[in-house]
Specification:
The chain contains eleven helices and nine strands. By secondary structure, it is an alpha/beta fold. The longest helix is centred in the first third of the chain and has 18 residues, at 7-24.
């Protein structure tokens, strides 16, 4: 049976389904032994009692507390090859690559993950293929960044609409669950008119059933806060950096307070600081493999202590990494004194070793 939901079916059913999702589902925390009460788990997509699920702002979607990030950095360490990073340079037509992505998505589904985020052509095509016939198991986040506001040619509403249609057609997608338009890393370089055009395109996508929900991704915290405050009726979800060094500002000046005020869903990218937290290279037989697995779990546990985060989105390159992150969800959430000291030391080392093109992560130590 073809489980793909068509755009027409979505337009017919989304209002009813959204109301049902938003009405009666509270956070599921059975993985940590907490009482679920009257939670209707039947309304949670791909529910697994060993996974925690969080409400994604006013979208009402209940999303697994860890999502699958689109990147597959260091994948060559698992599948072989000569590319230095194994990400974006890997041929997505390679059968070995396709099998790896299928297997990782399968294990995510088995572990209760229900969201995957794809932020470029290669990722969109790869995950659309890996999810073919099982879109009913995972929400699909979409951003074809080279046809979005990061590039000058694509900053009008008309061009953004064109880019979305072209990308969805190439990927064989009839709809996406979230379209999050990618802004410049320093999004203050955008004019007010450009942001306005982007909002128009997002509204169009939602009204026409191309996207169930819409939002922005940005690395510019103060500007993103201003955008949300100005367009609070339009922006439902954001994606921002959020690492194991990030802390929240406990007053109205922080982005965190704005997200709570307007009930905006919040996905965290770069939870492992672009792999800078790890000592090994991602190889299964690395002498640091066990230590890196522990570091990954500590980082995820730390991030999940912030209940405002819908989900961190690590890029995972093996089924073992999926299992490890799923284990972090089940482990005790709060870090003890020794664990905190260990993670603090790890993050200091990560900050010191950040490559030049990721120095902006340091701007996300406070939100």
């Amino acid at each position: 049976m073809d489980s793909r939901l068509t755009r027409r079916q979505f337009m017919r059913d989304s209002a009813v389904a959204g109301a049902a999702i938003g009405a009666g589902i509270s956070l599921s925390a059975s993985a940590r032994g907490q009482e679920q009460g009257k939670t209707d788990t039947g309304k949670i997509l791909n529910y697994n009692p060993d996974m925690e699920y969080r409400r994604c702002g006013r979208t009402g979607l209940m999303v697994s507390s860890v999502a699958l990030g689109g990147h597959w950095k260091r994948l060559v360490k698992v599948i072989g090859g000569n590319e230095p990073e194994g990400w974006m340079t890997t041929s997505i037509d390679n059968p070995v690559f396709q099998q790896n992505r299928y297997d990782v998505v399968t294990r995510c589904i088995e572990r209760g993950f229900n969201y995957v985020d794809a932020c470029c052509r290669e990722e969109i095509l790869a995950y659309a293929k890996a999810l073919k016939g099982r879109r009913d198991k995972m929400f699909f986040g979409y951003s074809w960044h080279i046809k979005e506001s990061r590039f000058e040619e694509w900053r009008s509403a008309k061009k953004l609409q064109q880019g979305l249609d072209e990308g969805m057609k190439e990927a064989g997608l009839d709809y996406v669950d979230l379209w999050r338009n990618s802004l410049l890393v320093d999004s203050r370089q955008h004019t007010e008119a450009e942001v306005e055009e982007a909002v128009k395109a997002l509204d169009w996508a939602k009204k026409t059933g191309r996207a169930r929900f819409v939002g922005f991704s940005s690395h510019d915290r103060p500007h993103l806060k201003q955008i949300i405050e100005k367009y609070s009726d339009h922006i439902e979800v954001i994606l921002t950096p959020y690492t194991a060094k990030t802390k929240v500002i406990e007053d109205e000046s922080g982005l965190w307070a704005t997200l709570k005020k307007y009930d905006v869903g919040w996905f965290g990218i770069k939870p492992f600081a672009s792999n800078s937290v790890f000592k090994g290279d991602g190889s299964p037989d690395s002498p640091f493999a066990e230590q890196d697995s522990r570091t990954a779990r500590l980082a995820i546990r730390y991030i999940l202590c912030n209940q405002a985060i819908t989900a961190p989105m690590p890029g995972l390159i093996s089924v073992q990494q999926v299992d490890n992150v799923a284990l972090a969800v089940k482990e005790r959430r709060q870090l003890d004194v020794q664990e905190k000291a260990e993670l603090d030391q790890t993050m200091e080392r990560a900050w010191a070793s950040l490559p030049a093109n990721y120095q902006w992560l340091k701007d996300w130590e406070y939100v």
